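Re: [ENG-882] Designed sequences occasionally contain unexpected residues at chain ends

Forwarding the minimal case from QA. Structure tokens:
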């Protein structure tokens, strides 16, 4: 069940979206459009890329920070009918296979802080 933001939750701020860059055309891999986005989430940056191939789509990301990443960081992608989760590696990276197209919300649990990136279009 998708929880709603509370006082312990903050929204990510979109800094860059490759689909809105001048001169950029929409790219496809397999049947999915691909994109890159950069978000500011608290004291961190979140670099996201949607990739695709013949087997489907996957979301690849990296949490960029100056400090060492604790082992308890977790990413959850909340979709129309399913949720997908992945731990964040010691280098801040993660990869989530996405089985269906739709609009998703990404929950980034960084220890005692939780951040949301809403409205990720996977189509």
């Amino acid at each position: 069940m998708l929880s709603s933001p509370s006082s312990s939750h903050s929204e990510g701020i979109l800094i860059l979206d490759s689909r809105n860059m001048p001169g950029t055309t929409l790219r496809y891999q397999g049947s999915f459009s691909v994109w890159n986005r950069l978000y500011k989430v608290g004291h961190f940056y979140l670099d996201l890329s949607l990739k695709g191939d013949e087997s489907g789509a996957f979301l690849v990301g990296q949490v960029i920070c100056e400090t060492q990443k604790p082992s308890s960081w977790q990413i959850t992608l909340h979709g129309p009918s399913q949720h997908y989760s992945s731990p964040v590696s010691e280098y801040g990276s993660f990869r989530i296979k996405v089985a269906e197209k739709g609009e998703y919300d990404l929950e980034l649990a960084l220890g005692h802080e939780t951040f949301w990136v809403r409205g990720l279009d996977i189509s």
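QA comment: On inspection the terminal residues look reasonable. The chain has no helices and eleven strands. Proposing we downgrade this to a documentation issue.
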